[in-house]
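Below is our example:

___
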Amino acid sequence: MKFKIRSLLLSFLCISPIISAQIKKIGVPFITNYNPKAYKAASENWDVLQDSKGMMFFANHFGIMQFDGVRWGIVTQPENRSMVRSMVIDKNDKIYVGAQGDFGFVIQLPNGQYQYTSLVKLLPKSARNFGDVLHTVIRNNEVIFFSYERIFIFKNNKIKVIDAKTTFDDFFQVGKEIYVSDNEKGLLKLKDDVLIPVENGQKFIGMQVRNIFQTKNGFLLFTQKNGLFTFNENQIKPFVTEVDPLLKQNQISAGIALSDGYFGIGTRQSGLIVIDSVGHLVQHINKQMGLENEYVTNFKIDKEKNLWVTMKGGISLIQISSPLSKIMDSSNSETKIYCSQIYQNKLYIGTDNGLFWLNWDAYKSGKRENVTFQHISGMSENVWNVGVFGNSLLAFEKNGIFEINGNSAKALAKIDGAWQGILIPNHPDLLLVGGYTGLYLLKKINGSWVFQHRIKGFEESSRIMESDKQGNIWIAHGYKGIYKLKFNTTFDSVSDIQFYNDKNGFPSSLFLNTFKVDNQILFGTTKGVYRQDVSSKKMIPDPVFKKYLGLENHIRLLKPDNQDNIWYVSGENTGKMNKQKNGSFKVEELPFRKLRYLYVPGFENIQTTQSGDVFFGTQEGLIHYSTIKNKKYQAKYKAVISEVKCIFPKDSLLFSSRYDVLPNKTGSINDKFSTVLSHSNNALHFSFASLCFDDADATKYEYWLEGFEPTWSDYSLQTEKEYTNLPENEYVFHVRAKNMYDVVSEEAVFRFEVLPPWYRTIWAYLLYLVLFGVLIYIIIKYQKRVAERDREQLILNQEKELLRNQAELNEQKLALEQENMAIVRENLQTTINLKNAKVASNTVNLIHLNEILLSIKELISQIDKKNDPNVNFSLLTKINKLIDHELQGDKHWNEFEEIFNQLHDNFMQRLKSTYPELTPRDMRLCAYLRMNFNTKEIAPLLGISVRGVEDTRYRIRKKLQLPSDTNITEFILNF
């Protein structure tokens, strides 16, 4: 009867607001732990909240700690540097903080910094002495801070103080009402800033109530050491649960209401306990089950419906919204899982350390304290497969084939490795076993499987086998191809083998698998699902799977379930093709993205059951899937820019939430270009993250620097980007994330401007313009001066040149005149000399002639006087002799020759010495020729005829040995 009352009471449990998150009953949710080494702050964390963007904040012993999915950091501290104990956030993301001996609020500045403002200065000095502010809540338009000594109500920038008569014990917000547990008065209600006793509230004295939850029929109380109670109609009654001894022994420290009547209970010594509406244990997650620490201090359900747990020794994120969970027990003995099977209410798992089992009914009912995986004795090697054949459970192991009975294994055949077994079509008593080096046959005799023999004619590894309707056995070899076998009637040898590889239509001979879906043999290839064409016997893409799975991925596994759905592993993705009423399929992959990279490569395995349980064997143990969990995978989230810093010439932060690293800046967050950088700071480093905490390590990012890059980058796991040598421009850095469910975040942007170098600024250009004008002016002035100077110089040079030319001309003229005068003088001198010579000669001749004439005159006078013929004849004879003598005489010639040699550079001597054969007459003729006399002039001088002169000239030519064409006169003149 008591049990029915509890069920009726708590079937309508609710909290305002109700947290729409429910934890799975089966398995342990995935947990991500963050220890103090990871977040680099104090180990103790007391509270947790999430702002409107999705950013997580934690009340840490060192201050308020922020986590953006990638980076941790203390963002601010109370003014007295004390630990933070409680936090609450309003709709404007203003965080109200309760600390040790301090309280206040925190806002974020445009540069990313968080600024703490203490409100203690609003208190009178008499009220400023208090301890830890354990709770901070917002109700309507007021903020309430709770400490053991006082309650502070902040409203309209004023604080109302309510003092405890002795001390308060705890503080509770239940719906819109505020309750206070007083160590002397019991339970009180805060109304109109006054504490009013609750009827029979004194019953709460000494109970150490830590949480109160509103139900339809009263309160549900969480006490620290005495378990759970109900309070209804002023009566307190125990609420009995399956975990009462656990709760009383380990002390309740925190509580949270989940959906469907579930409650999360944090303990000081045993982690998290989850119960349902009637007190049944749903989950017990402690350190052994993966929790970071046993001492739970607080909870928070985030926007992704996952549970954040703060502890005295770290932080844990429990992914309670996921339909996937790990099948774990206190021993955690399982390792790599190659297969799983439920048989006779026991869950068997084949691992690389043997075969294990646990009581499945007890485990899924939540009774796990004494439910652990038990090792099957006799099997300690790799167990590749386990299956039910008839009424027997057989395991296929490295050392052979085993039959499982209870906790032990019986060896049916010791062979060199067994992969798996299948029943031969139309022969339910025959089991074909694929081994490392061939095939083996077992037969069921008297209800037991008995090893028969090795099948001859086939010695290939047979890890993957299927049978078709015609009784053929299809075997996939990992790197050779596909074999199709037929056996003889006695099943002791292979009668026919057909082999298929890439030559028969497969895209490749590597990594082929064979599966049976809806009694049809299909093949998994590196390029989709193939089947055999009936007419051509060629391997062709299957049209159904081509439509839903495409031809781009490696099909590793196809597994039909009992509802005609098809499970598959395609590439790195696991999915489910849900059969629709019209025969089509709907592909579902998002719930299984967490399984990426968890399978043992080549040994992907999925096990489905009649009850809807689905098991995945992975490298991290056995994972369970529940179809009743409906997680929203398309939830929106935001990308954030965590930090921006200049990296040259030295690191300097521009935007960061890190504590005390930036000076306060003013301005609006929406300023178009709120950050203006000098050109020397044109190398920037961006750090970014996404506020999606579900497998944050799998989130990928793309970025784009607008103004520098043409488009978005490719997605990568990189959470930082660096740019160097950015030219002057206005830039916008964009970043967005894509989580493991392929949901793209809202983008984050950071606007900034890089100024040009000083020499390319407007002022520089103005300066350049002024300098250019000055330079042009100087150039013009200079050019004018140069032109004037050049003109003057030119004139001067022209004058000098003119004078020089005139001087040169005068000199030339003078020289010419002098030369002419010299020539004239020389000519004149020559002429004079010639004339003188002639004159001298003539004078000599004249004198001599005069003498002759005188002699002749005297003789004539004698003739006249005596008039004697004889005498006259004698005188005439004398005259004639006198004349002949003169004509042949050399005396006058010698005088002439002497004068001639003086005038003509010893011509006569040079000619004589050169041509000694010349006679005196020849010499005379040459002298006359030298004087440029002609033949007629020479004849009388020589006293010969003209003919005689010519003959003499001829003789002289021979003596001078002159050619016939040489002019003798020119030769004589030039000699």
Summary: Confidence is low (pLDDT under 50) at residues 1-20, 665-673. Residues 2-322 form a domain with the Methylamine Dehydrogenase; Chain H fold (CATH 2.130.10.10). DSSP finds 13 helices and 65 strands in the chain. The longest strand covers residues 729-738.
